[in-house]
Amino acid sequence: QVRLVESGGGLVQAGGSLRLSCAASGRFVSINSMGWYRQAPGKQRELVATITSLGYTNYADSVKGRFTISRDNAENTVYLQMNRLKPEDTAVYLCNAYVIPTGRISSSAYWGQGTQVTVSS
């Protein structure tokens, strides 16, 4: 009933910027918290940033001050503005959202398919 689709990944030089988007579609009552995770080859998936429905944010220490998460509730979309990118930011970035589907009482976690971000030195 719910689908998350990411976009905006690509190849960028160190110090550059990218803006990721994740749009939710389907039949749902509401979207609670949303977030971005990333996974590099041979590494564990790690939380990058989260944002609540009211706009409260949380960031991994490694991206704090460089990345900004935001959301447009009317468009059911979450964004990740990534500035001053470093090679170590290279990973597949995945969108996550806790969604209450139509006909349900509680939220469930949904994931996008991921978008590749590659930062060259």
Quick overview:
The protein has 121 residues and is mainly β. It is 0% helix and 60% strand.
Please give a structural write-up.
The chain is an all-beta fold and 121 residues long. The strands form two sheets. Strands 2, 4, 5, 6, 9, 10 and 11 form a seven-stranded mixed beta sheet that branches. The protein has a four-stranded antiparallel beta sheet with strand order 1-3-8-7, with no helix packed on it. A hairpin with a 5-residue loop joins β5 and β6. It is elongated.
Question: Key terms for this structure?
Answer:
121 residues; 7-stranded mixed beta sheet; 0% helix; elongated
Helix fraction bin? under 10%
Distance N to C terminus: 41 Å
Q: What is the H-and-E element order?
A: EEEEEEEEEEE
Give me the number of helical elements. 0
Protein topology:
Layout lengths: L1 E6 L2 E4 L4 E9 L1 E12 L6 E6 L5 E3 L7 E6 L4 E6 L8 E11 L6 E4 L3 E6 L1
Parallel strand pairs: 2-11
Antiparallel strand pairs: 1-3, 3-8, 4-5, 4-9, 5-6, 7-8, 9-10, 9-11
